[in-house]
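Job type: complex structure
Entries:
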Amino acid sequence: MILINTTNYFGQLVAYLSDQMGIGGQILAYVIVAAIYLGFFALAGLLLVYVERRVAAFFQLRLGPNRVGPHGLFQTIADALKLLSKEIFGTNRKDNLLYKTAYYLVITASLVSLSVIPFTQGIQAFDINVGVFFISAVSSVGVLGILLGGWGSNNKYSLIGGMRSGLQMISYELSSGLAVITMVLLAGTLQMSGIIEAQRDTWFIIKGHIPALIALFIFVVAGTAESNRTPFDLPEGEAELGAGYHSEYSGMGFAYFFLAEFINMFIISAVGVTLFFGGWLAPFHLTDALPWQPLWGALWFFLKVAVFIFFMMWFRWTFPRLRIDQLLTLEWKYLLPIGLVNIILMAVLVYYNVLISF
Amino acid sequence: MYNELKADIENQFDQASFDEETAKYLIIEIAPDQYLALMENLRNKGFDYLFSMTGMDWGKELGVTNHLENTQTGQMLMVKVKLADRDNPELPTIEKIWKTAHLHEREIYDLFGINFKGHSVMKRLLLSEDWEGYPMRKDWHDETKMIIR
Amino acid sequence: METVTLNSGDLKSQEYFLNMGPQHPATHGVLRLILTLDGEIVKNIEPDLGYIHRSIEKQCEYEGYKQIIHLTDRMDYLSAHINNEAVALAIEQALQIEVPERVKVIRTIMGELTRIASHLLWWGVMGMDVGALTTFMYAFRDREMINDIMEETCGARLTMSYSTPGGVMFDLHPNFQKRVKAFIPHLRKVIPQYDELLTGNVIFQKRMKGIGVMSYEDAISHGASGPAARGSGVSCDRRIKDPYSAFATKDIKFNEVLYTEGDNLARYNVRMKEMLESLNIIEQLIDNIPDDGIQAKTKALIKLPKGEYLQRVETARGDLGVYIVSDGKKNPYRVKFRSPGFSNLNALIEIGKGHLIADLVAVMSTLDFVVPDIDR
């Protein structure tokens, strides 16, 4: 077990304010941290939608949004305002409670997972000792939201979409979990900051060599599937099901599902970067000697995440969609057995210390 | 080209008459009660492609014109059948001989009101279920829906 | 506490209906299919047509022969020119007009361009149906070039109404040959790119192979025609079987693309290869378009002699038949358009059964329906 002794700026803020103002200050600090996260959530969501549209346009011989603001940067903000001002209406016979709970579950799940991601040195809301485990646990709650949305809409297309989503996400949760465990074997801890600290000299993708590469492959496939993106966008499958589980949602109800999809993509990329590519660590200690370490850390973190996200967008705009049985075959017949064998391989390598490290 | 076929049909079906006004293909006119037998006979002679079924309204009679093709030899045939009873026109279905007749017969039922006995789904196809009348008949008039110059 | 024992027989699954269309992204228009589903498996398909039924056949009975041509654009709007040509040919056949050689060549080139444009659109939409969204933009980029060529000569991009009884509306635009010659190498260059993007993709291959199999006998029995039937090995190209326009008078060499598997991939491959064949045809004609006028002499008011006339042509979707019954007046007594899509839809009812919804969508797009063509 590696002992972590890094400063946590959010922790310091809470400690400082509760010192100054007692319990009121502590609550104030929590509210401030929550507000920062909500702000980041909204901004990242909007930015990712913008990036997705530009990247899609780049792949599709188009220009994409380029009218509102510089390079069309404010386009998604305008879209968000439009969605906010839209009337929310659904079908008459929807199950109102489930229908309205659904998007809160989805959005809460992705917002909560965001809290344990180390954006840079010391910027992390909770640095709990089961960080990775926490993420996979919390992100599973999102499935529930999608299932409820599919069921509560009282629409057959939504129902089919919801059921597909349930099948898909529960299956691929296994594979991504196994890929995470493989890498945790290298780190010896589930704590996010600990995992990064363990990579200070060698990133796990290099340290773990072959099993790490296999784990990365499994993780990317399972991650893409978990975030419901092409080639695994069967729950939506617009050519087959209209819009799948969110067919019956309008206005912000739809926007929540939409934002959650993009934030999930960010979370998966962030976890991937943390597990395989050293999180906010600079490659080859390039910027270790410079001042403003947290800022440099953030730069490297977001750069790596951006590359990851670009790859996921690349998949989306070039691959056709799988069929549901092919999807399950891929998971249960290929990814899961490979993942299990990979864990054993990694365990053996770690035990005999056949690892690359500088 | 068609002489052998013509003689063959003449022997088997006493109610068939021929029309060779268009030289390109043979036109057979058949009475409704021998229609199914003739069609089965033609299918066995190698006319495996039912090109189209056309509903017709000849003023007095309703009827169906079938275009048949032999995909091996390229021969074409036209089979006409006329139904004198305008109020309750009925024909046996040929859906079981050529699968394509399934939709064609539904269309003819919809637009001409010819009932194909034995068809699996004898419902309106193009128009809505509550439509009254058969619009492709010559005596169908609608003041609001038709503009006639 | 009471114990409840459940036997496997107590739990029953229930089939349910799903209303696919008339507003559904995969039905390409207003086709409505009433599906009976068991889970996601399609047990029964019942088409409900007529959402875009304009009774073109009835309208024709009240129009003169020259007007009819303009109605046919609106049937299969992706092969608009070939539809026009079919009616024009039927009228010419009835009046026994010999049209100038130039007209025949122009009609054939235009027809082949239309076919390519139609197949390009199909390819783009086909990709969308299986979830590859980028194909649409690629296909439309290249289809736009054909539309521009059409616009220059015919004055319209989609519903051209270019053929008239006895000839064509306008002479070719001076740019026509130049533009077509620029287009041919361009398409030859981009079709391998298409293959890289979609055809060679392993997911796409797995989605297409062995799905929606239509046997040779079934294809004939269903009255399938065009690429849908040629994917099952049925040789049914009207351009070869009973040549019309320049196919009859010029010595044009091209192959009929035949695949025998009868599945989605076969139908897909037929269309991809057909585009190249169409390019070959255009290439053989474009350099020597005869110069003998664009219009044969016809009367201002066309009256067909009493009789029945049938003209079959090969549209992008298959075998279009125009059957005109004339009683000698200025209006036809009865016009029947035997549309290829109508018969191909009949095939879908059978070959779509037993597949998943996702496969049904793929089968539908390889059969390439244009709904106005089915409804007329």
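Summary: The helical segments of chain B are 3-12, 32-44, 101-112. Residues 3-117 of chain B form a domain with the Beta Polymerase; domain 2 fold (CATH 3.30.460.80).
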